[in-house]
Specification:
The protein is α/β, with parallel strands linked by helices. Helix content is 38%, strand content 15%. The radius of gyration is 22 Å and the shape is globular.
Length: 397
């Protein structure tokens, strides 16, 4: 099948004299993620960006917790009144484990007639759906290491229950592939993507010596290491500026102990007359974020954990902004040879990579241009959507 042709329903609709119909796909968002550009995360964004490009090829419904109409992505979205009960039991010990199974039971009535169920990040839902009687195609889509702790027997048991697994990096595939040949055989690497019409270079607004970070302000994202490295950057570039965008959650912010630690270190630098550090808060992905990437001299992703992909890196690349990223997880796959990789715990190494880019215009421009080409060839959402159509068709046989 050509990627431009519709992904049609079952063979029963394709007999002589019958008209084919679009396959009906249901997408299950995990946890309590809202289907929103502002309050949603990477899973909601992936779902919207890919399926909005496939309107003439699949009929999609996204299932998730309630999202206010004014914040909702422009795709069909359904919820179930059972979310109220889920919210009641989720804080209660010994009952919270029934939270997600209860949610699934609330939506199974809508799923039974679908051709494909696309599950985000919840491998345990595969068997639960089968036990509830869903007989169609199930595709599991992993953006995090949810199978790393599964035994070989559990992985082998999962394989016959589904038709395809998509992961966002070779790194993520490797977390389980060696323990289950049968599941590895059903696994495809499908990258995350970037709206290159929105994230694009604007050199006329590029600012000198501005280091930019954006992400949730959590310990695993390495923000504290970034501030420490910035303190050393100031020895060589006392006029450098650091911008730390983001909040502790998607669209919401809590002044946690970790956030206070980051702010106190930043304030100590400023109080001593060293540097300029700004906290613009949560940034609307579509309205605000592109211009921050476009203005930055360097983007930095100092993740301490094994980041499976790191979408912000690809978005910076789309803006021809050179990236200094952690040498962990899937980040090296995203950057290739177009960025600098560092160990964020090695503060001197980290600071040296930032300082070198701030003072070497030619290197900066060369990396930015190479990153832009790589992003447009590998991570454009149009390419990801075409790859996803092929994946669905293969999964349906």
């Amino acid at each position: 099948m050509s990627a431009r042709e519709p992904l049609v329903g079952s063979g029963k609709e394709r007999g002589p004299g019958s008209s084919s119909r679009l396959a009906k796909v249901g997408v299950l968002l995990s946890g309590r993620e809202q289907f929103s550009a502002f309050y949603g995360g990477a899973l909601a964004r992936w779902t919207y960006e890919v399926y909005s490009r496939l309107r003439d090829r699949v009929e999609v419904t996204v299932f998730g917790f309630p999202t206010a109409a004014e914040n909702l992505y422009d795709l069909r979205h359904r919820t179930s009144g059972v979310w109220r009960a889920c919210n009641m039991i989720s804080p209660i010990p010994f009952l919270r484990r029934w939270d997600e199974p209860l949610w699934l039971r609330g939506v199974i009535q809508f799923l039974r007639d679908l051709d494909v169920v696309h599950i985000h990040n919840r491998p345990q839902w595969v068997r639960e759906l089968r036990q509830m009687g869903y007989a169609g195609t199930i595709c599991l889509h992993l953006q995090n290491n949810h199978l790393g702790h599964w035994t070989s027997a559990e992985l082998d048991g999962l394989a016959p229950e589904l038709q395809g697994v998509a992961v966002c990096s070779e790194f993520l595939r490797a977390t389980y592939a060696s323990r289950s040949a049968s599941l590895a055989a059903k696994t495809s690497v499908i990258f995350n993507g970037v709206n290159t019409g929105l994230f694009k270079p604007r050199e006329e607004i590029r600012e000198p010596k501005t280091i930019f970070f954006v992400g949730r302000l959590l310990q695993e994202k390495g923000t504290l290491q970034l501030v420490r490295a910035y303190a050393r950057v100031l020895d060589r570039h006392p006029d450098a500026t650091l911008v730390i965008g983001g909040s502790s959650g998607f669209g919401v912010h809590e002044e946690t102990g970790y956030v206070r630690q980051v702010r106190e270190l930043a304030q100590a630098l400023i109080s001593n007359g060293n540097g300029r550090i700004f906290f613009p808060g949560y940034l609307d992905h579509d309205k605000d974020l592109p211009s921050w990437f476009q203005r930055a001299t360097v983007f930095v992703c100092p993740s301490l954990f094994q980041e499976p992909f790191g979408l912000v890196n690809a978005e910076a690349m789309a803006c021809a902004t050179p990236v200094v990223g952690s040498n962990r997880g899937g980040i090296p796959e995203v950057l290739g040879e177009t960025g600098k990789l560092v160990d964020p715990d090695q503060v001197e190494q980290f600071a040296d990579a930032l300082s070198s880019l701030l003072e070497d215009v030619e290197s900066r421009v060369a990396l930015g241009r190479a990153a832009l080409v790589r992003c447009r060839e590998m991570f454009d959402w149009d390419i990801i959507a075409q790859t996803w159509v092929s994946f669905l068709e293969a999964a349906r046989g």
